[in-house]
Q: What sequence folds into this?
């Protein structure tokens, strides 16, 4: 799980404008909600930052696919950071179960 941060700049300083969550589906691609990056899609001066849960390294990303209808976006990392993909279902169950979604702490 990663934090997706929309970053602005006033020339000398960079600053966060908003943030949301995402998860790695490949070592270089992140899925997040489309509404999380909407501001960056509308303003090409803003950047999309990706911060792993450890918070030690960070990189930038660029949107490669966006579905406003499904509120999903696929982001490709532009730096050298590589992330372990999240396992969606390691052992598929044939019974319905309870599902809980929690945002970034």
A:
């Amino acid at each position: 799980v990663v934090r997706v941060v929309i970053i602005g700049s006033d020339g000398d300083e960079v600053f966060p404008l908003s943030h949301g969550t995402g998860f790695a589906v490949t070592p270089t691609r992140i899925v997040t909600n489309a509404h999380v990056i909407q501001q960056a899609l509308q303003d090409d001066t803003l950047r999309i930052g990706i911060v792993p849960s450890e918070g030690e390294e960070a990189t930038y990303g660029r949107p490669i696919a966006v579905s406003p209808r499904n509120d999903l976006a696929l982001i490709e990392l532009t730096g050298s950071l590589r992330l372990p993909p999240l396992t969606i279902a390691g052992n598929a169950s044939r019974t319905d179960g309870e599902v809980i979604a929690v945002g970034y702490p």
